[in-house]
Amino acid sequence: MTNSPSPVRQRIVAEAVRLEEDRLGRILDDPMADARARQAGGDFEQRLVYRAGAMAQGRRFAQTLEGLSQARFWLLLMVGVLAFLAGVGAAATVFGQDATVNIGWAIAALLGLQSLMLLLWIVFTLYRPRGGGGLLGRAAMAGAHGFGRRFSKRPESVVVLSAVVGLMRRAGLGRWIASALTHGLWAAFSLGALLGSVFALTVRQYDFVWGTTLLTEASFAALVEILAAPAKWFGWPVPGPEIVSASRIGMSGEVGRELWSGLLLSSLFFYALLPRALLTVFSLLLMRRSARRLRLDTSLPGYARLSERLGPHARSLGVLDPEPPGVPGRETAPEKQPDPISGPVLLIGMELERGPRDWPPRLQGVNWMVLGRADDRSQRGDVLAALRAQEAGPGVVLVLCSLARTPDRGAQRFLARVREQTQAPVWALLDEGRGLEVRGIDRVRRSRQWQEAGSSAGLDFVLEVELNDSDHPGTRKLLELLVPGESGA
After folding, report:
1. What are phi and psi of 398, to 5 degrees?
2. Tens of pLDDT along 435-462?
3. Is the pLDDT confidence value at 319 over 60?
4. ω into residue 338 within 30 of 0, thus cis?
5. CB atoms within 10 A of CB 67
6. Other CB atoms within 10 A of residue 245 CB
7. Strand 369-373 to strand 345-350: parallel, antiparallel, or no bridges (unpaired)?
8. How far apart are CA 171 and CA 177, in angstroms?
9. Contact 29, 23 (CB under 8 A)
10. How far is CA 481 from its chain centroid?
11. Are 190 and 115 spatial neighbours (Cβ–Cβ below 8 Å)?
């Protein structure tokens, strides 16, 4: 019997289901999962999570996520071991064949880079509270995701990884995961350097010297005293001014070996291992807090489409309306030039010939929010529910129609319903007109039929476009309206 997945994993599965449905342009029909989600109760987000877990596709995503998590664990463990070995190698470099060690070079080699990186982490954390996380941790995360994409044998892995990346941007979760990885890897490096130094100092005798051109002996002694302050506070013996003076290059160099060794080891512990270990624990605690606060963005169209299906009193929509009567007071001349749009652009596809690979369409410079496909009665109800769920009014609602199809009563009825659900302008875009002549269809007549259907439904504008052709006059006109000041070139 398997343990119940964590809330974060449940939300990753729900997000993966949403991404898959957005890719397909339709909701994955699973009436049993919908019914179980309604019976489970809770708020809308909880019903979304329960629905995704009860779906066959959701279970496949959960299995994929489990496999990716195991691969990620072993990959990060390997990276941690490599960081530890890198620390051991750094110590081995410092304590090489030469029996005389420059204490200044040793401290700089073992502490310099990571102290600088720690300082940069603190600066970025203070001045960019929503970013940061550490370059090392983000590189490890990127490597883990890339490894998963390349080596996972499940076709669902790309969708699951996209869901993971999307959710990690919420509630600061990704930031603290990256921080935990960054400090954890540096802690492993510091532990390797500390243990490597202990081993080298245990099995061989070293003399410690120092030398400087810019600093006076008194200045260097003051720096040593500052560096040794934590060890001195805990009663660890450290070099005094007389030992510093006697260890200068050119002097005997055979005094204070134990004191210099203690200074080096205590510096590695207090300035490298201890702060990194504490910051790792701190980041893990904040990561857990962010994970508890993680929530799905239920305002996204992919979730909003399900608001009525998963409602406590969901019912079948049935026939939406009889004959569309038109919308009194809203009928406009579709050929009238509209004003440029400012605000979110919502996109609906209706009975298109585009396959899943060509949906949603792309228009350079326009980032529209896809509400979904409306190819049958059920999908139309879902799209209308998503439209009603939009809290902030959109700038325009675009209904992408196919010139290859005749605007029948069902299409006109749906356009009228879209018009009823929003106060924003509603435009019909007539796409897929190429090849009509080969089929023996009069393109001008078909376009006029859609113009009349849009006018009867009360739409604000009807425009013939070819979204796959950026040089099409209608496409350029659409780009000018959605992105003022630009052409569709």
Report:
1. -105, 125
2. 777 777 888 889 999 999 999 999 999 9
3. no
4. no
5. 17
6. 15
7. parallel
8. 12
9. no
10. 31
11. no
| Alpha carbon distance 458, 444 (integer Å) | 21
Helices marked H in 269-408 — which ranges?
A: 274-293, 301-304, 377-388
Return d(Cα 464, Cα 404) in angstroms, integer: 12
Q: Worst-scoring range by mean pLDDT, 31-45, 334-348, 383-397? A: 334-348
Work out the average pLDDT over 167-186.
87
Task: Give the contacts of 174 (CB within 8 A, at least 6 positions apart).
Answer: 133, 141, 165, 168
- Walk me through the domains of the chain, giving residue ranges and CATH numbers: 59-293 (no CATH), 345-482 (3.40.50.300)
Q: Would strands 345-350 and 396-402 be described as parallel, antiparallel, or unpaired?
A: parallel
**Per-residue tokens: 128:** 């960019």
Per-residue pLDDT, 488: 39
Mean pLDDT of 359-384: 86
| Other Cβ atoms closer than 10 A to 438 | 7
Q: Which amino acid is at 439?
A: R
pLDDT digits (tens, 9 = 90+) for 77-133: 999 999 999 999 999 999 887 888 888 889 999 999 989 989 988 888 887 766 666
Q: List, in order, residues 6 or more apart from 97 with CB less than 8 Å away.
A: none
The upper half-sphere exposure of residue 58, i.e. CA atoms within 13 Å in the direction of its Cβ, equals 24
What is 439-479 written as a DSSP string? TT--HHHHHHHHHHHHHHTT-SEEEE--TT-TTSHHHHHHH
Residues in the chain: 489
- Give the three-state DSSP class for 148: helix
Among residues 277, 260, 253, the alpha carbon closest in space to that of 190 is found at: 277
Helix or strand run (H / E) with residue 14 = helix 7-24
